[in-house]
Amino acid sequence: MINEPRKVKPPLQEQEVSSKKPQSVVSPQAKTEKVILNQVVSTEIKKVNQVYPSTDAEPQAVVVYCSDPRFQAAFQGFIHEELGLSEGKFIPLVIAGGADALSNPMRLPKEFKFMKDRLELYQSRFHDVKRIVLIGHEDCKYYESVRDRIRNFMGSQLSLSAQHKITLGLLPKVIASFVAPKVSVEIYFAKFVDETHSEITFEKVF
Question: Is pTM, for the whole model, over 0.85?
Answer without folding.
Answer: no
